[in-house]
Design a protein that fits this description.
With 215 residues, the protein is of the alpha+beta class. The chain is 16% helix and 33% strand. The chain is built from five helices and 14 strands. The longest helix is centred in the N-terminal third of the chain and has 10 residues.
């Protein structure tokens, strides 16, 4: 078993540290963020930092890396227009999704360059990924800078939610059925396999678990 102390992590080569620390939180949701600037030029970028913030209102957050030195077209477009989309990645286009992470010029659309189709639905101001079956139209609410590393927490509210008909298993969404893709590290992609369903946890209904064999 390998043990890293703070000074060990800080002494790692930059790329080695990136890969290590990006992986330790486990498999994260893989999403493509679709935006357009005020002139209608489209942009698409892969993110693994989308997180649930609350259900009422329906809020999602995502982390954008520091913007001072490297242009972040996604971040700029969100602030300019106030809208963006979150699109699940599926195995059928996972390679195309990955390469949207390349640093393209802002006049180059990752949709076109990476072989994906921009889809504008119901007058929504930001492009969806046509190939994605599970997608959300988001309205920008707040930009919070995290001073410790200059990243930005973008908070948005779901304004449009598009879910495939076969995504549900009873009342629950089954992400295995939708073939949602997960990401670990910088460039590793995973299929999701559903393990179990459990009831809402109430203290009096918690089973008596044993501790045999280290369980």
């Amino acid at each position: 078993m390998k043990c890293y102390f703070k000074e060990d992590i800080e002494s790692l080569d930059r790329k080695e540290r990136l890969k290590l620390i990006n992986a330790v939180s486990g498999v994260k949701p893989g999403n493509l963020i679709g935006t357009a600037d005020r002139s209608g030029n489209t942009n698409l970028a892969v993110f693994s930092s989308v997180v649930h913030l609350g259900s009422d209102p329906a809020l999602l957050g995502m982390i954008v890396r520091p913007v001072e030195e490297v242009p972040r077209h996604t971040y700029r477009n969100i602030l300019e227009t106030g809208y963006y989309t979150i699109n699940h990645i599926h195995p059928s286009f996972v390679e195309k999704a990955h390469y949207t992470s390349a640093k393209f010029d802002d006049k180059v659309s990752e949709f076109e360059r990476c072989g994906l189709d921009a889809e504008f639905r119901d007058g929504f101001a930001a492009p969806f990924v046509k190939q994605s079956q599970f997608k959300m139209g988001m309205g920008f609410l707040q930009d919070i800078e995290i001073p410790q590393n200059k990243t930005h927490l973008i908070i948005g509210e779901i304004q449009q939610l598009i879910i495939p008909d076969d995504a549900f298993s009873g009342p629950e969404i089954d992400l295995e059925k939708t073939e949602a893709v997960g990401i670990s590290g910088l460039n590793s992609y995973y299929r999701l396999i559903k393990l179990a369903d459990f009831p809402y946890a109430r203290e009096k209904e918690v089973p008596r678990f044993g501790k045999k064999d280290g369980s």
